[in-house]
Amino acid sequence: MADHIRIRKADGVWTVRSGGAVLAESSNALEVTEGDYPMVIYFPRSDIAMAFLERTDKVTTCPWKGDANYYSIMNRSATIENGAWTYENPVDAVAQLKDHVAFYATDDVTVERI
């Protein structure tokens, strides 16, 4: 793993909310820190209401994590384009990220520890 990426189990229970709905709640989330970037919480796919997510065509590549695939968040009041991402086949050094999804925290999406 790149020296600047750290993955560990996130303490406590974490949630994602959007449009008045709880999209995810997990006590098995991962906390990922990468260099000087803010910490990101990755939720196990099994703890996400995937019906709120719609796969998009967007793909980006990170040299340390691999290809990221994106989802739009569909809630009752808005669509947040490419508001979540996943590494379906991460590089071996960050294999823990497989089957996890992260969300961009915005005015329309709240990611928080409860």
TrEMBL record:
Gene3D superfamilies named in the record: Domain of unknown function (DUF427) (2.170.150.40)
Instruction: Give coiled-coil spans as residue ranges.
Output: none
Which InterPro entries did the record assign?
A: DUF427 (IPR007361), DUF427_sf (IPR038694)
> Which ranges carry the DUF427 domain?
15-105
Q: Which domain of life is it from?
A: Bacteria
Pfam family example for this protein?
NTP_transf_9
* Protein name per the record: DUF427 domain-containing protein
Give the organism, scientific name.
Marinibacterium profundimaris
